[in-house]
């Protein structure tokens, strides 16, 4: 199977998780949703990724490899990213999947580490927990008083 | 309904007594290294299944046996599609097994935790 298929599926999933399915739990997103939203053939999906979890892991890895580094660079430059959905896939992975999936836990842990390092380089160093917490508030529509 | 278990380095899928008749298979033993993953997928029962040989297909009632689709063999044993689990295989006679299990979430967790990734 060509790499472009993997790229299209995992990249597409990663982007859409940010945009459209970001509010839905892993268990709440079905293979049916992937097939319809990504326009990929169900049998191809099983052939390439093996399972929904295989697709999820590929999407998470794609996201961490392609979308997190630019975000980390902006954090290191002092940018405020809490109004953007860039951290949401990672937050959801940490809340939902990391406690029950050791591979997700390892990926989340490495991403935390990279983000922490970026934040230390920032002109106004901030704790990662503060950035993540603030993003959760914004996402929930609750702003700091 | 199939009982899915792990025995040493093998995945074992065992059909219930009567279903052995529909499905023309009583037991499948697959080395775990050839198992690529498992997914609860109720929607798959709506997809075209290809040509059956040998097997039984009464739409809406039972899908059991070997089906040929796009050059692949798929083993089906499903009556209640809400409890269908898809097990993807590599280097096996079947490309996929689609089986009904008592607890799809538990079967998916059992298989996903047992296979090396």
Main traits of this protein?
heterodimer; A: mainly alpha; 69% helix; B: 117 residues; mainly beta; three-stranded antiparallel beta sheet; 9 strands
Tally the structural domains of chain B. Answer: 1
Overall body shape of chain A: elongated
Reported CATH architecture of chain A:
Orthogonal Bundle
CATH class of chain A: Mainly Alpha
Secondary-structure element series of chain A: HHHHHHHH
Quickly count the domains of chain A.
1
CATH topology of chain A: Tetracycline Repressor, domain 2
Question: Could you give the order of the helices and strands of chain B?
Answer: EEHEEEEEEEH
Query: Hey, roughly how much beta strand do the residues of chain B contain?
Result: over 45%
In short:
Chain A is mainly alpha-helical and 145 residues long. Chain A has one domain (3-140): Tetracycline Repressor, domain 2. Chain A is built from 8 helices and no strands.
What report would you give on this structure?
- The complex is a heterodimer of chains A (145) and B (117).
- Chain A is mainly alpha-helical and 145 residues long.
- Chain A contains 8 helices and no strands.
- In chain A, α1 (3-19) crosses α4 (52-66), α3 crosses α4 and α4 (52-66) runs parallel beside α7.
- Chain B has a single domain (2-114), classed as PH-domain like (Roll), CATH 2.30.29.
- Chain B has 2 helices and 9 strands.
- In chain B, the strands form 2 sheets. A 6-stranded mixed sheet of chain B has the order 4-8-9-7-6-5. A 3-stranded antiparallel sheet of chain B has the order 1-2-3.
- The A-B interface holds A 30-32, 35, 42-43, 46-47, 49-54, 57, 103 and B 36-44, 47, 69-70, 72, 86, 88, 95-96, 108, 112, 117.
């Amino acid at each position: 199977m060509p790499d472009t298929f993997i790229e299209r599926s995992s990249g597409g999933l990663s982007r859409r998780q940010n945009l459209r399915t970001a509010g839905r739990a892993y268990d709440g997103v079905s293979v049916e949703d992937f097939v319809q939203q990504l326009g990929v053939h169900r049998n191809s999906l099983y052939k390439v990724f093996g399972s929904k979890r295989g697709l999820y892991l590929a999407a998470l890895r794609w996201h961490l490899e392609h979308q997190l580094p630019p975000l980390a660079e902006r954090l290191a430059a002092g940018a405020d990213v809490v109004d953007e959905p860039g951290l949401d896939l990672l937050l959801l992975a940490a809340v939902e999947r990391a406690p029950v999936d050791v591979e997700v836990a390892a990926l989340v842990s490495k991403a935390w580490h990279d983000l922490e390092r970026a934040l230390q380089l920032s002109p106004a160093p901030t704790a990662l927990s503060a950035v993540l917490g603030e993003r959760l508030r914004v996402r929930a529509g609750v702003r700091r008083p | 309904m199939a009982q899915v278990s792990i025995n040493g380095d093998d995945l074992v899928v065992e059909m219930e007594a009567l279903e052995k008749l529909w499905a023309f298979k009583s037991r499948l033993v697959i080395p775990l290294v050839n198992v690529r993953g498992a997914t609860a997928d109720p929607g798959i029962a709506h997809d075209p299944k290809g040509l059956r040989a040998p097997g039984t297909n009464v739409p809406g009632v039972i899908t059991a046996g070997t089906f040929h689709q796009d050059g692949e063999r798929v083993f089906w044993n499903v009556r209640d599609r809400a409890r269908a689990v898809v097990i993807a295989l590599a280097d096996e006679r079947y490309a996929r097994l689609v089986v009904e299990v008592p607890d799809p979430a538990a079967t998916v967790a059992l298989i996903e935790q047992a296979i090396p990734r």
